[in-house]
Amino acid sequence: MDEKQQRLNKLNRLVQQGIDPYGHPFPDTESIQHIKADFSEKENVELVHKIGGRVMAFRDHGKSVFLDIVDETGRIQAYIKESTANPDDYHFFKEVVDVGDILGLKGPLFRTKRGEITLEVKEWHFLAKALLPLPEKWHGLKDIEQRYRYRYLDLLVNPTVKENFVKRSKMLEHIRNYLYKNDFLEVETPVLQSLAGGALAKPFITHHEALDMDLYLRIAPELYLKRLVVGSIYKVFEVSKNFRNEGISTIHNPEFTMIEIYWAFQDYRAMMKLTEEIIKYVVKQLLPDGKTVWEGVTIDFLTPFTAMEFRDIFYQKVGTDMEELRDLNQAKRVLKAESISLNRPLTWENIVDKLFKEKVESQLINPTFITGYPVELSPLAKERADNPKYTDRFELFIGGMEIANGFTELNDPFIQRDRFLAQLKNREKGDVEAHQVDEDYLLALEYALPPTGGLGIGMDRLTMVILGLNSIREVILFPHLRPPDKI
């Protein structure tokens, strides 16, 4: 008889005894962490505690049973013995309870001879019967795919996994608190958009039946947030779910979380400073010494972040001045020499972008700002006053990944229109990631967008590097996976 059938038999036994195996609410429970922290040797043995949790271990010693009970705050040992319980009740308990079941327990606390705080079970209630056994040896490195696919089991049996997601939640709380303290207003903007704007990316497309129109899952909230700055919300941010129809890897998931921030009357330098301050503020809450280990390398978040110009580091790492690549024959030779293929139209900006991603990004381990991006790669950023071929834009890299992107926002409606039209030409050449012409946004610019600094921080990747985790799937509760029948 397989284990599921054995458990079904126990479930039927409960029903026969008039016990609901998926019982009733069990309110007013105490957290295990709290009752253990408050335990005193002088505690009145008649003081009854009430806990609810999952059985994670069941040790039968014949005339007594020891259980490990876990709730969201911790673990406690529970104890029931034949001599102090009703014998029939005791044996029934042993017959029907399995590891994985959720129970409600009442009883006093005591300390065993080994010094372990233990709850003596005087009363027990069935709250939910587990029909399948928990994995006995759930080692993530042996079956990572199963860990992600059945995250609820991963959380149950791998405490560090749960701790990491608790830390992720705390990180977001700290970022919000930092922005609230600095008078930023949190807002929500549309997820379904009539145009996919705010970034260079391939969108997901859906269709609205009532309006009979195609809509896009947003790739970024940027253009809506800047509309709000036009409307005089001068310090604004959004924690947004974004969607990009791109490949899946250790650093890419088609659904991801961004924090986008806009601050009127500021520029990219102010946003660089804000980025560094936010990250250091979060790190101080989570890492006592401000350091983490990423792929064997120690990253110190509390030292000043490095800054380098895009063109300089491109030359340093690729060995070619990127302006020379405007000669497409030369560009093709460089791509061939580096064994790099391009799956987008062979334009200068696509070539430079690909070479930068392949040859530069992975080497930027410690926090490094890259500034001065080419205008072709930055259709929404303001051009530099001293050289309009480049923009007042930065990206922050940590652990070889882009963590943040920011710039002085382009607020000239005429130049913005020209940038959109240049992107439109790229779309006509087959570049599905090129920006669309957003006439409504251009109209908003005609009502005047003040000088504004913008910033986007990738929450998933930031969590990865701060916690020293090497896959984005470790920080997303339910990452997108290939269906089992297509593996």
TrEMBL record:
Keywords: Aminoacyl-tRNA synthetase, ATP-binding, Cytoplasm, Ligase, Magnesium, Metal-binding, Nucleotide-binding, Protein biosynthesis. InterPro entries: Aa-tRNA-synt_II (IPR004364), aa-tRNA-synth_II (IPR006195), aa-tRNA-synth_II/BPL/LPL (IPR045864), Lys-tRNA-ligase_II (IPR002313), Lys-tRNA-ligase_II_N (IPR044136), Lys-tRNA-synth_II_C (IPR018149), NA-bd_OB-fold (IPR012340), NA-bd_OB_tRNA (IPR004365). One of its GO terms (biological process) is lysyl-tRNA aminoacylation. GO terms for cellular component: cytosol. Gene3D superfamilies: Bira Bifunctional Protein, Domain 2, Nucleic acid-binding proteins. It catalyses: tRNA(Lys) + L-lysine + ATP = L-lysyl-tRNA(Lys) + AMP + diphosphate. Mg(2+) 1 binds at residues 395, 402. Its main location: cytoplasm. Pfam families: tRNA-synt_2, tRNA_anti-codon. It comes from the Bacteria. Its EC number is 6.1.1.6. Belongs to the class-II aminoacyl-tRNA synthetase family. Homodimer. This is Lysine--tRNA ligase. It comes from Psychracetigena formicireducens.
